[in-house]
Design a protein that fits this description.
The chain is of the alpha+beta class. The protein folds into 3 domains: about 110 residues, no CATH class; about 200 residues, no CATH class; about 300 residues, no CATH class. The protein has 14 helices and 29 strands. The strands form 9 sheets. Strands 23, 24, 25, 26, 27 and 28 form a 6-stranded antiparallel β-sheet that branches. Strands 1-7-2-3 form a 4-stranded mixed β-sheet, with helices on one face. A hairpin with a 2-residue loop joins strand 4 and strand 5. Helix 6 packs antiparallel against helix 7. It is rod-shaped and about 160 Å long. The N terminus and C terminus are likely disordered.
Length: about 625
């Protein structure tokens, strides 16, 4: 009975041990166990897809224990010496405990748990480890209870013989407890920028590590050994990647400022006025810029972070950025955008001065936003040393001789070309008497040191002036970028009475698109002197002109409501209505409507009356009293 009791105790202990560990013990084939024992390694208690707990071993053990119990219960008490019963009971108890201990030891040994009993924290000492890359795979079909093979390390942390769930927690804690540092050099276009880890956030691909470790476990049922017979260990590194945040964006923006190369617009580097169109301009620039690709830079940085290199170089991928103006585009669009001609009826000296002034202005380049000055281009036109000669001028309301006389026709020709080229008018003055070579309101007088013609390029592109004189014909042409917002420009002016001695002119620039007026700009106004030899000159009825290759013509426009068709009484055409009382001072306001329209024929090319000088008259009258011209100045 004592032996029987002692065996039962042993059986009970064994059953308790089985119940405690039943959920963790899995079926291991005899071949796998023998192979692992031969290699002095623990068996791998796994099925790759999931834990499968089998009952065969437990059923065999239950049957064996049941047979032994029946045998002991059927024994006669006489078969056991009574005097040794207590001793046998003790021996049986001790034997049972030993059996239980041996069983527990075997389980722990073969399950790999012994490693964690003899190493602090469950970590093994990493020896003879081989570095291996983490694969970009998922933990599909792998249970959290799946036990990883022995000898697997991640960032020096052992996850061998651990369940996937436990290994995950261990690696998550490791990531939380470590501050990853790096300094990477980003290189592009022979320039470098240092990207630092401070302030950046990371994402750790722990699932990828676990999946790779599980795959390794499945493929190595019999773990490899080195020459000494030691189990081969393997080392993984947790793949890190950058998490997008404001700090990362700021660093990449700073990198772009250093590494990006701006595109260079094509521009004219040589202007050869007078040459054929294909040789008139030479161009430079038109080169692409380079811009770093943020996503590709992050991808390259992540490749370094994958192996947690503290230092490294990233060759940044760049994308080409085309310039706004390519060389082909600049060549195609560098066209004549306006031209204007006048014909001189002046003297040879005056014509000489006109040609000299145009030659001085020829080849002018007006950059975007730049203001161009006629006087700055010609130099002091009162000096013979600058190539100018005496000709008729008007000073103090009288014709006289002066150096540079006649060049106002050159400035007026350029002024009208500038109007059709849509240049901004910064400074312009009218003559004392209306000039016969342009409509009223479209002349531009010059007096060195006092009166100037200033134009501004309000476009985004450079403009180029070609101007010259052939015989008695003056021509000014602006080249540049044709503004697509309008098809053409119409000039328009009307006269109105100021007093019996003066009349005024309002002038306009009208923009046409698809045959319709889309905008109207008021130009600088003018006032002209009326006397016995000068009458009201022709206003512009609405001229669509200035376009190279397009014949000038009258364009039907809506007249200004203040356009009365004024024509001065006593000059060229009589006015049937009484003349209004003259004002003591010239006033800019128009008077009442006059019923007679001015003639629409082309203006004459000569003044109606010869001036009281021995020299032929100049065609540029002086500035009216309302201008800033002083009494001693002269208009040329």
């Amino acid at each position: 009975m004592n032996n029987k009791n002692g065996f039962n105790d042993n059986q009970q202990n064994n059953n308790e041990n089985v119940n405690v560990n039943r959920e963790e013990i899995i079926n291991i084939s005899e071949e796998t166990a023998a192979a692992n024992i031969q290699n002095e390694e623990q068996p791998i208690p796994n099925d790759y897809d999931d834990f499968i707990t089998t009952e065969e071993d437990f059923d065999e053990a239950d049957e064996m224990f049941a047979d032994q119990e029946n045998y002991i219960q059927n024994m006669d008490d006489s078969e056991m010496p009574k005097e040794s019963a207590k001793k046998n009971i003790l021996i049986a108890a001790i034997s049972g405990v030993c059996v239980v201990l041996v069983a527990v030891f075997c389980f722990l040994f073969f399950s790999g748990t012994m490693d964690s009993l003899f190493v602090s924290g469950g970590n093994e000492v990493m020896t003879n480890a081989i570095s291996a890359e983490v694969e970009d795979i998922k933990l599909n079909g792998v249970s959290d209870n799946y036990v990883l093979a022995s000898g697997i390390f991640v960032n020096g942390e052992s996850i061998g013989n651990m369940k996937v769930s436990d290994a995950r927690k261990k690696l998550e804690n490791y990531v939380k407890g470590n501050d990853f540092k790096f300094t990477y050099t980003i290189k592009a276009n022979d320039k470098t920028y240092t990207l630092k880890s401070e302030g950046l956030e990371f994402e750790a691909n722990i699932e990828g590590v676990l999946a790779t470790a599980a795959k390794y476990t499945e493929e190595n049922k019999v773990l490899p050994t080195d020459k000494s017979g030691n189990t081969q260990q393997i080392e993984y590194v947790i793949p890190l990647s950058l998490k997008k945040n404001n700090n990362l964006t700021a660093q990449l923006d700073n990198a772009a400022k250093v590494l990006n190369t701006e595109p260079v617009d094509a521009k004219v580097t040589g202007f050869n006025p007078g040459a054929d169109n294909e040789e008139k301009f030479t161009f430079d620039g038109g080169t692409d810029g380079q811009e770093i690709d943020y996503d590709e830079v992050i991808k390259s940085v992540n490749e370094l972070l994958w192996t947690q290199q503290e230092k490294g170089e990233v060759l940044a991928k760049t994308n080409a950025v085309e310039p706004k103006i390519t060389k082909e585009k600049a060549t195609e669009n560098m066209v004549p955008i306006s031209t204007f001609t006048t014909t001189s009826t002046n003297t040879a000296n005056a014509n000489h001065n006109m040609a000299t002034a145009l030659a001085a202005c020829n080849g002018s380049i007006i950059e975007p936003g730049e203001i161009w000055s006629f006087n700055d281009s010609t130099g002091n036109s009162n000096l013979e040393s600058n190539g100018y000669v005496p000709a008729t001028v008007i000073a103090n309301g009288e014709y006289t001789s002066g150096v540079g006389g006649g060049l106002c026709q050159a400035s007026s020709t350029i002024y009208n070309a500038a109007l059709y080229a849509n240049l901004g008018i910064v400074e312009r003055y009218n003559h004392y008497w209306a000039s016969p070579y342009v409509y009223t309101g479209f002349d531009a007088t010059i007096d060195w040191g006092n009166l100037d013609l200033k134009l501004q390029n309000n476009t985004e592109y450079s403009m180029y002036l070609e101007c010259y004189m052939e015989g008695t014909t003056l021509t000014a042409t602006f080249y540049g970028w044709k503004d697509p917002s309008f098809d053409g420009i119409v000039t328009y002016s009307y006269n109105y009475e100021i007093s019996g001695s003066y009349y005024g002119t309002e002038a306009f620039r009208i923009y046409i698109k698809d045959g319709k007026e889309i905008d109207r700009e008021t130009l600088p106004s003018s006032s002209y002197k009326l006397d016995g030899s000068h009458s009201v000159w022709y206003a512009d009825p609405g001229t669509l002109g200035g376009q190279p290759g397009v014949q000038e013509g009258t364009y039907p426009i809506s007249k200004d409501p203040n356009d009365t068709g004024y024509w001065a009484a006593g000059y060229d055409e009589p006015d049937p209505t009484p003349e209004p009382e003259p004002e003591p001072e010239p006033e800019p306001e128009p008077t009442t409507q006059k019923p007679t329209e001015p003639p629409t024929t082309e203006p004459p090319t000569t003044e109606p009356t010869e001036p009281p000088t021995t020299e032929p008259p100049a065609t540029e009258p002086t500035e009216p009293p309302s201008s800033s011209e002083s009494s001693s100045s002269q208009a040329q």
